[in-house]
Amino acid sequence: MSMEKIVSLCKQRGFLFQSSEIYGGLQGFWDYGPLGVELKRNVKEAWWREMVNCHDDMSTLPGAPSPFAMEGLDCTIIMHPQVWKCSGHYDLFHDYMVDCKETKKRYRHDQLNGRWVEAKGRKAFITAPAGDDEVELIQKHALKHFNLRNKNIDDLVYDGDVMCLTEVEDLSQVVGPETKKIGTLTEPREFNLMFKTYVGALSGEEGTAFLRPETAQGIFVNFKNVLDSTRNRLPLGIAQIGKSFRNEITPRNFTFRSREFEQMEVEFFCHPDQSQDWYKFWRDRRLAWYHAYGISEGRLIMREHHKEELAHYSIGTADIEYAFPFMAEGEYGELEGIAHRGDFDLRSHMEGKLDEKTDPLELQLGEDGKPKWKGSGKDLSYRDDLSGEKYIPHVIEPSAGADRATLAFICEAYCEDEQPDENGKMQSRTVMKFHPRLAPIKAAVFPLVKKDGMPEVAKQIYLDLKKRFKVFYDEKGAIGRRYRRQDETGTPYCITVDGQTLEDQTVTIRDRDTLEQQRIKIDEIAAVIQQRLDQ
Ligand code: ATP
User: Fold this and answer.
1) 35-75+213-409, which class in CATH?
2) Ligand 1: which residues within 6 Å by Cβ?
3) 463-498, pLDDT tens digit by residue?
4) Strand pairing partners for 94?
5) CB atoms within 10 A of CB 421
6) Fold (topology level) of 423-534
7) What would the pLDDT profile of 514-523 be if each residue is shown by its tens digit?
């Protein structure tokens, strides 16, 4: 499966477009076209339905430690700036970047790889962007740097293997990826990933605010509001779907790393003693969700973070990762992180920002001996009305990206095969094998030919179905071509009105994957589609 083909189909068929394309595009921003918007809505809907509305369907919840409550929330993108100070994002949410003084290009420090190379009595660390082709690029770049021709390739002497630029202490011997000169890269500098903006007429620092880099914080600061207004007891999960913004230094791989994206997050509040069981439960449950919607076992992994990888507050984190076609063989890209966050967030919003380097439970104190960033001062602990116990809940956070999930479903669905046409001749087709509930269009309605009253009947069927499902009407071209057009958009069912329809009020319903055609009564069509979607 090639990424180029997927990207090209996405554009041609209207799944995804580059944002502001007529002005040359804006890197890291993507628009969803007519099919893409339906697909992404269905992904979010599938998540919401199962995580929130059907959360207590015990048939789908093997291993749930106890019954639990789930509620939804929709918070603002811009919040009080103190939220980001107490969450740690203001101080800690950054990447390191290096600038090339020559080309004015900016790179993430940890995304440049390189190799020490010697030639003509000199030695330099030659770099290239980390990726599949880095070894080749480094070699090409080394030839350029040392002014050597291809035939002199053996004059290059390598000292050691490819390594990350972060391992090189002295950048004065480094050659940036797009320059021939040595020593043009600046020392790494911190770059906060939050987009800044100004609230109100003041454009000075007093009005500074940030676009949220995650939806989670809105949930933490509303924990008490949700608890009190719903009269739930713990364990309680609060779910939110919404836009997040990160000024990523190197957005890439289609929508995988964007600067504006959507997250689907749950913050699950529970008793500290039960938190490990809930952590396990959410890991299994979220993995099962991707499988249920068609991601194959072989392309999905659950990767538990090593101790060194864990965020300072995290007791455990596991990532669900997918073998995207743009990743190197054997590598995976993160779809979702499931983190055991302990009581870090609620405590921070109560008491102030915590010190990352030492004991996470110790407050970072300013010179006056008071916490450097003051928390809200509000009591965000929970008192159990039955046992009387009072505690700060622990939190399990399954945090998924709606765009990354949508991209994974697109990649997984893409398929090329050969099928016989109506004359029995083999025809190659591209088919998007979306799970029917995710498919942007559920059914297409065709009259076999554009005469004999067939279009009228087909149009009436289309109008009736439209009230319940996203459907499409098409009467243009040969029927085989119409089927194939729908296959490309991933439409699971095609309904055809033919000569027999006019006699006995039946139509054929064709299945996208098996190509099987069944004859059903017109007044059963909606029920048959619904039944297949519910399967
Ligand atoms: P990465 O390591 O890939 O930058 P992350 O670990 O920073 O991701 P989280 O902060 O855990 O990501 O965010 C939760 C989810 O939000 C991710 O699993 C991903 O699906 C999504 N996400 C995060 N950053 C982006 C982005 N720049 N573009 C698209 N989706 C993103």
Assistant:
1) alpha beta
2) 214, 246, 248, 257-258, 261, 263, 334-337, 399-401, 403-404
3) 999 999 999 999 999 999 999 999 999 999 999 999
4) 192
5) 15
6) Rossmann fold (3.40.50)
7) 999 999 999 9
